Amino acid sequence: MGIYDQARGQLTFQLEMLKEALKQYCKYDVINNITSRIKSPESIINKMKKKNYGINYQNLIENINDIAGIRVICTFKDDIERVKQLIRRMQTIEILNEKDYIKKPKKSGYSAYHIIVEVPMKYEGQDIYVKAEIQICSMAMNFWSTAEHKIKYKTKGKLSKLDSKKLEIYAKIINELDEKIKEMYRKNIRI
Ligand code: 0O2
Q: What's the gap in Å between 165 CA and the centre of ligand 1?
């Protein structure tokens, strides 16, 4: 896990620099916050079982892309596009895959833009590439997904159908508010 933690640290440092540069240029926190975590061994094993991968290191390295996970939380919804474009231009990482859960939210209501990247690292004198997942979302999306993660996502289907439905509806309401607040900001504050 040590090498994943180093990759997480390196990537977070680069994204923090991007956050500062954007703040200087745009005169507000385009990126409001950056959080990160290393997936717990229990959670890795659960995910491998769920996806029917044999539990071994090769499957872990090849198939589990989010052992190092970084969340880039933008102030307004349309900042996500700007941040996404800038991440794509970063010379220090290689992009492997992108998933747009903003254009097409998940059935649960989950919405964010995911980029799977490779971070070049040195390990025992050798060049290796460590995978990490960058989730880009708005503050509103982060609010919903953090709450939903605690209430439902990890409870393995124990939540009632009614409460699941309510969470889906709340995701839609939050998305509408996200859109309205962004429009109000862009209308009144010109940069
Ligand atoms: P945790 O606890 O956050 O680490 P893939 O191998 O990429 O095809 P994967 O990784 O399941 O399959 O892809 P997916 O669906 O894009 O999910 C990646 C991560 O997005 C999840 O990691 C969550 O962090 C987040 N996510 C996806 N769906 C939801 C959702 O409905 N609600 C919430 N709150 N978060 C979601 P983990 O490992 O599943 O969980």
A: 19
**Overall number of domains in the chain:** 1
Element spanning 128, H or E: strand 126-138
> Mean pLDDT per segment of 10 residues, for the chain of length 191 residues?
93 97 95 97 93 92 95 97 97 96 96 97 91 98 96 82 95 97 89 54
The response to whether residue 145 sits with its C-beta less than 6 Å from ligand 1 reads: yes
Instruction: Give CA 15 to chain center in angstroms.
Output: 12
- Domain span at residue 73 reads 2-189
- The pick from 4, 102, 149 for probing ligand 1's pocket by mutation, whose C-beta has the most ligand atoms within 8 angstroms, reads 149
Write a three-state SS string for 17-77. Answer: HHHHHHHHHHCCCCEEEEEEEECCHHHHHHHHHHCCCCCCHHHHHHHCCCCEEEEEEECCC
Residue 170 CB contacts under 8 Å (≥ 6 apart), including other chains = 109, 144
What are the pLDDT digits (tens) for 121-170? 998 889 999 999 999 999 999 999 999 999 987 777 789 999 999 999 99
CATH of the domain at 106: 3.30.460.10
